Amino acid sequence: MSAGRWLGTVLAASTLAVYAQVVHHDFVNWDDPVYVTRNPVVSRGLSLEGVAWASTHRHGATWHPITSLSHMLDCQLWGLWPGGHHLTSVLLHVAATLLLLGMLSALTGEPAPSAFVAGVFALHPLRAESVAWVSERKDVLAALLWMGTMWLYARWASRPSGRRYGALVVTFVLALMAKPMVVTLPFVLLLVDVWPLARRAPLRQRIVEKLPLVALAGASSLVTFVAQARAGGVASIAKVGIADRLANATVAYAWYVEKTLWPSDLAVFYPLRLPIPVWKVAFSGLFVACVTAIAWRTRRTRPWVFVGWLWYLVALVPVLGLVRVGEQAVADRYTYLPGVGLSLLVAWSGVELVRSRPSMKPVVVTAAAAVLVALAAASWVQVGYWRNDVTLYEHALAVTEDNYVAHTNLGTALLAENRVPEALRHYQEALRIDPKAAQAHANLGVALAAGGDTSAALEAFQRALALDERDAGTHVRAADLLAGQGRLADAVAHYRAAAALEPASASVHNNLGFLLAAQGNLGEAVDQYGQALRADPNLAAAHNNMGLALESLGRRDEALHHYARAVELAPADAQNRLNYARALARTGRRGDAIGELRAALSRQPDWPPAEQDLIRLLAADTDPAGRTEAVALAERLVRSTPSPDAELLATLAVAYEGAARFADALGVWSDAISAARAGGRPDLLPDLEAALAACRRRSPVSGAP
Predict the structure, then answer these.
(1) What b/e sequence results for 522-535 when a residue is b if at least 16 CB atoms lie within 10 Å of its CB, and e otherwise?
(2) Residue 93: its pLDDT value, please?
(3) Helices (H) and strands (E) in the chain — how many of each?
(4) Among the four residues 136, 216, 297, 568, which has the most C-beta atoms within 10 Å?
């Protein structure tokens, strides 16, 4: 086995060993619901509809269709088992590591330092966020395609041809469609021309040949900016000024180097604290300037220093916060590709040391191995924090200060475990740190509602919407509370706002239709159900609700189609079957209705609504066996009910009449009338008294003197 293959095998095995634990990890509540678990298009798996959606819609505020399709494929393969999704990310990370190793070995002819660079890439704790977080699938995909594009570029540079250039363009486009952060790759390729390729072509030629890639990068940047701006993800200058952005970018450059050298106290979120101390900005700026000056002065004698440092500087530009997306100051995941440049710098400096002083080779090799072992151990610990929401955010709170996002997300995790008092404490702490955190107000409302304080919950939702009126989820939660209080007009207004913000949300349109139907606005309700089904043709609840609305409008044939589809899509939903059975009975298809009711009861035995409907249908059956069964079912149901109400007694009376047991029926009709009076149901009395009178007329003995 060659040295390169042996090193690759060791690296792959080491990486798998560090990340094997993720197959037992959960999804997390930050972005994973948007990307996978609560995204109806993605969670259904691969389909032509999904491909069309990925190509035309933003996903998590960004257009990256390759990433979207990757999540769909995972859902196709694994369903919503989180271990499978994590495993895919790990395998992609391993593939990117091996591609990096192979590329550097081929370009430099030095497998040992190439393995060190690939090892740091694979095993550094800063990588944990990119690999162990399902939502960061875009990182591992983009890295794989970045490495592939670089390798194809090197092949093209060694022997240019249209086919080879076309191949690298394709992989670059795919990388852009995985994560737009790779827009800096054309500039990194200019650096690779200097070292290790050492191309002699004029600088003008080297720039011109990359212009098609630069144009693609520019188009991707524009699409990304527009998508994120429309999603409300781009912070305004008024919120974070230009001076603050530049200061944070300067500090970030130094911070990432620090964490690369000493990866301690890593967290999922680092709050941006403004203003940044002047001394910190000055020190960081001086550090960056000094290293840049050294890299420039040694660009001919030590080109790997120049290339490695500028790789790091250039690749970080899209995520420095100059165009602010998100509230973080820095993020571990942002080092995924830029960090390769720092590793290059270190690795080939070690090579130079060994060449100048061969006696240092055992020391350098031992130090490199020790570094990789230490990084692997630290990564094992860091990956473990991603086990679930609670471990992730508790660790973040332990290593950061005033982390309102960690408090907010931990509160949500605790609320999901019904630990309401603890969740409330974290939400309140988040609001103490940042009173203008809209999401914290919204989550506080959720916790208050779970605790039964709906008035306070509504106030919290209103404060959240005053801070961020574009939060569709908060509009929905406020609407649901308002609907529960009978304030349908206010609830409809919030659902309309949510539908405008999330026009592709099937559940929002379905719920809006339900409220409109409750208001009696059946025509518009049908329109909303139609929009819901266009967004998600397999939403059983929308089919069921559409059936109810259409039947009320007298469009029974269309209603039956939607009822049947609802039952087909959700065969375990007994209510859908009950609605379908009732519609079938009203259209005279009594046999089919009886069949659906039996199916409902087979899935949900002893369910009174279905039992009573079945009894009434069997009581009118032309088959005496059916009428006998109706009596037996009705008597059993009454016996099993401690205090039968008027409606249940009426069902028994109907069964007796169907079996021609008029004397028994007359007695039970009378009992039903008494039960209605005692139970405060005067609304039932006219129908019950009419039924009693009709029974007397039918009874052969009721008219005797």
Answers:
(1) beebbbbbebbbeb
(2) 98
(3) 36, 0
(4) 136
